[in-house]
């Protein structure tokens, strides 16, 4: 019997054809919303695999997908997937690490430079026709090169950021991670520090952590109090890691110098959020992997992942590999 795959995201036609060439019947939705949710649910009846993002994949959804064997998210994060429940049902959860490492690292460095050199503030200064002579001191930024950078979460992206900081800007790199990463220490002279020390010493604090019960509000009042008043805080991991009210208070009271944010506690960001009005904050709408090249690579990886998973090959890119390998 021909296996079925349901896609709930726009991906290149060539990737749809790739699935068909492997003898899968493919049903595709560009997105799932209230207008097509019932149709989407009906399409899951005989689905062996699903590919997409921004749909909650949990016990409720599986009521419509009794034959499901693999969930392939077009992302590194898998916040929308109940991994424990999938594991209990023997369903592989696949994701797309590595293909976006460079893009996210580029975005992080963009936030470092944009916040430190006040690019947005001074652009607005010009657009408001205020540049009529020598610049006032509030237009002055701070240096990036040779400064101390502290990376919280030394995973794949963290390693690429460390490389850019050390080799591109001659920065002194330190990191906080549950495990020591000798390769980063050997290649870039990085120091493995406890979190409190890193916060006290760093000129830039870059957070690249996943959202888990353990990391929720890992950064709150206490952590911002520890940082230098001249420090800049960057979050490009997951929004719930940061207590936004504590961050806003730290920015308004100048406990830290500024922040660059790509992720938020609730997305999209509330239009009434004070983060949108503070002059010492640069905010972008979760664009870490938003380049055409990277998004195409992610979609290709997700398609390859679902093919591999349905063929029983889950050694690569499987979130719950350890839970499934002994089943």
UniProtKB/TrEMBL annotation:
Keywords: Oxidoreductase. One of its GO terms (molecular function) is NAD binding. The keyword Acyltransferase does not apply. Transmembrane segments: none annotated. Coiled coil: none annotated. Residues 109-288 form the D-isomer specific 2-hydroxyacid dehydrogenase NAD-binding domain. GO terms for cellular component: cytosol. Residues 5-320 form the D-isomer specific 2-hydroxyacid dehydrogenase catalytic domain. Belongs to the D-isomer specific 2-hydroxyacid dehydrogenase family. This is Uncharacterized protein. It comes from Dictyostelium purpureum (Slime mold).
